[in-house]
Specification:
single chain; 284 residues; alpha/beta; Rossmann fold; 9 helices
Length: 284
Amino acid sequence: MTDFHGLFELEEKIHVTDIGAAAIAEKPIYMSLIEAQAAYLSAFDGDQRQTDGIKAAFGDQVRHFEEFIFDGTIQTAYITTSESGMSSLLKPNPTALKFFNGFPHFGTVLEEKQVETTALDSLDQLSSIDFLKMDVQGAELKILQCGESKLNACLSVQLEVPFVCLYEDQPTFGQIDTWLRNQGFAPHCFLEVKRWSIAPTVFRGDFRAAGNQLLEADIVYVKDPLDINSFSDLQLKKLAFIADMSLHSVDLCVHLIRELVSRNTLPRGSAERYLQSRMKPAPQ
């Protein structure tokens, strides 16, 4: 499979699973793995309005599922405009929405409908997950709790965490963080920290211009690198791909390669070779 800076190849592809995969605004950080044919993608989004966008973004590189991933029970889906990205299995909290400029509009519910949800662990057609990405508007913790078996060997989790909960009964950042730490994950990096302006103050005539109030963040957790003895050789290699190609975390990658060297899986000097390859000037 893909040559990793001339050091090693993967024995099997990385399984990326994206829950809430609607391609609304940004290119996902795992896309480089897909493009390098180092990974394959399982994408979930129960909102059928997003199907065409997902297919346009990933083509034949994705297995697309239209299930609502949650806990396997019947739930109420609160549907907002597709552009807002705020459709959720949790009810928007009007008090929290009114706190921020623009959010009463973003969180306006156009339709409520009963939907059948599916627990990750009940999906026989879904193999064990290596890299989980979620953007599910408050459903993160329940999905994690109902997917422990699928996530037993997971190496990295990317998710959106709230600083102010916009939905009723939405788990806090602290609750999500505690659960992930208890499952053997460690916070690695913030991809984005989003601030917003508190209503009614508007800066520079633009209600989207941020004030100082924290709203939410995209954060990545990784299998705890302090517990590196629990990694298999294949897990070390897969996380090295993720660290290098998706997270641009050169120092984490060096840490993983050094462990492979200590196990005689890679020759001495491999970490130095990798570091040199990453420090080369970009082509003109």
